[in-house]
Amino acid sequence: MNTRFTNDLRIDGDRLIRRIEELATVGPIEGGGSCRLALTDEDRAGRDLVGAWMSEIGLSVSVDAIGNVIGTRPGRINGPPIMTGSHIDTVRTGGRYDGNLGVLAGLEVVETLERHGVQTEHPVAVAFFTDEEGARFPPDMLGSLVYVGGLGLEAALDIVGIDGAIVGEELARIGYRGIAPCPGPVPHAFVELHVEQGPVLEAEGITIGAVTGVQGISWTELTITGQSNHAGTTPMNLRHDAGYVAAAIAVHLRHLALEMSDGRSDRQVATAGRLDLHPDLVNVVAGLATMTVDLRNTDEKLLRDAEAELARFVAETATAEGVTVAERTLARFEPVVFDDRVVETVAGVATELGHSVRQMPSGAGHDAQMLARVCPTGMVFVPSRDGISHNPAEYTAPADLVAGADVLLHTLLALDAADFDNETKRIVEGRNQ
Amino acid sequence: MNTRFTNDLRIDGDRLIRRIEELATVGPIEGGGSCRLALTDEDRAGRDLVGAWMSEIGLSVSVDAIGNVIGTRPGRINGPPIMTGSHIDTVRTGGRYDGNLGVLAGLEVVETLERHGVQTEHPVAVAFFTDEEGARFPPDMLGSLVYVGGLGLEAALDIVGIDGAIVGEELARIGYRGIAPCPGPVPHAFVELHVEQGPVLEAEGITIGAVTGVQGISWTELTITGQSNHAGTTPMNLRHDAGYVAAAIAVHLRHLALEMSDGRSDRQVATAGRLDLHPDLVNVVAGLATMTVDLRNTDEKLLRDAEAELARFVAETATAEGVTVAERTLARFEPVVFDDRVVETVAGVATELGHSVRQMPSGAGHDAQMLARVCPTGMVFVPSRDGISHNPAEYTAPADLVAGADVLLHTLLALDAADFDNETKRIVEGRNQ
């Protein structure tokens, strides 16, 4: 690989920021963020807007059977593309950068190449993947998972959302059940630009993160069945309070995470983000509680330790209270390690462009971790103010947005010139699981 | 007062049970219970049914300005009535006996008097009061509270429910914003028959409870504001997790209640029955949590101790997590002591009818505790299987339902003959607070 990566090409920062702002007005929520839960009308409106931009800048746009949208610019050879992209679906309280930045920066890369008449060796593809957030349909990163063959298309189309909707029906309803096949073509390489969504870069005053991998993720839904009863007449020792058990689990998660983080080098996080009681009334002991547990660790063994400790506590507490607990796995991904060569290319490009850079793992899941199953993959992070994300207050300074997009541009160009060992481009089918 | 209370009069048990079953089909829910939240369409349908029964048996029916419905049978004198009754609204997961038994047994009392041509000294009135449960509009026992002048009519009509509906508008919508004035006439005495909703009578094999008073009730809504953030990238020690604080409070309530119950003679109960997170998603640290706390004790001082301990823990935990907590009192009633003479009349009647009886406090709030502010008042309890209530599985054996109604009949007749000291019939206006 060439050690001199960059030339004078730069993306158009004003246009990038203008598009980020325009996309944020689709599914607007108080505080300047967006709500575009996957496959809702708001998601459709966002897809229509970004798809129109893709067409305007001359990309040939295809939609695959799980709704992933890919815009491609031809290369000198008609082979596997250099791919970039991310997602435009959001959580219910989404910010304006999460996912959107990576997609819209991909458009900037293409427009910059176009404007300067740069011919790449490989085609350049910009994708936005379906349901990265998993906030409506578990698991998260659904579209990229299906793209790489990690989940069969039929199984994915049958997934039922938290509102009872079905993926296949919703895709058809919003007009994004496309005809391009899943799994999709294996890229030459994949690089995703994303906001960090954590506090590390800002705290250290660094502009670019060269992401080394992604934490493993374990999502479990617990349905706790006790007995609803009168809050005034039922002695404490005769209760089968599903709400109490849910609360005890949520409190234990905090203790578990703090203990595992203090005593060991790897950081463990644990979150009970969803907790619903039934009948959810002031004077009734809850007979039913559903809650979710989100565990993450960069070390697979430690993540399993956390899962085991959770299971032990749930069993013990359920027995003591006389309730039953049903568990359902919503998502389970092992930690991912990105391709050293891509990580080093990102770091080298950033340095050459004059930006401070550090290597770091990602705390959040990203589509890149799915693509890493089939091709050399990496990510570029830019700082998030106060580490805030999944919140309308999510913010990245304009200069950092532009820096990230320029690093993306030159990383893709460097990878275009790289002659990766064919061994690394494993075929999708071989990785099905 | 006469020490020989009873004669051969008995209510019609089959008809009582038939009416209970018919009323349970209004707003039916799975498991044989009912959902008639106050002032909903289902509540209206229940009101229409019971009101029609009142008219059929010859009662003159009036509706007051807060929607309380009172059917009256004339007495020999046109003075204050002997009153009985309860409520027909339910919680979301209501059983078929809670409230309904007291109202429908009141109808039996009137029909039995009618069938045997018994002329009472005082009029006999059967009431069902609005929104006893408080499950939609706080506080609970709203209709009887307004009836005795404990809350002004205008303030009551302005109350906003958990669904944003307004009492006055909903009363008008369902056609139960009546013209009889509030506060209403002070009864000669008030007796309410109710299922125990707790396990004591069944556990001791006793048929009738002569209720000595009602636990004090303290309901608080806590709104916890933290910061919603990404569950994967936000280190545990940088979180402002409203959901964690809510869970910690719910767990602490359990400890508080167990500790206060073990160490002291009075029983303390504590419940977090409602707990809602926002955005309530698996991968987002909750930025907002609302929850309710229900504290009850028969001793006012101990109840205040529990409130103080809750406040201390909430403040401590909020500070440690960096969240703010807003508190709102939904209901606060001091413990109530019923009139000795009524309690003893209930116990004497039960014994004379051949039933086992014990004196006991009520763990639940009841309309009777409001009437106790203005006239001699008591209650009759019958057993609840497994102590279950606010649940479709709520059950009282038919023989116990009939026994309770017969005790109610003869208690009312005994009180009709009693010459209560006028001092005890305090005028409503003097008790306004």
What does this structure look like?
By secondary structure, the first copy, chain A, is α+β, with helices and mostly antiparallel strands. Chain A folds into two domains: 13-214 and 336-431, Zn peptidases (Aminopeptidase, 3-Layer(aba) Sandwich), CATH 3.40.630; 216-333, Alpha-Beta Plaits (2-Layer Sandwich). Chain A is built from twelve helices and 16 strands. In chain A, strands 1, 2, 3, 4, 5, 6, 14, 15 and 16 form a nine-stranded mixed sheet that branches. In chain A, strands 7, 9, 10, 12 and 13 form a five-stranded antiparallel sheet that branches. In chain A, strand 3 (82-86), helix 3 and strand 4 form a beta-alpha-beta unit. In chain A, helix 1 packs antiparallel against helix 3 (100-115) and helix 10 (340-352) packs across helix 12 (398-417). The two termini of chain A are 33 Å apart.
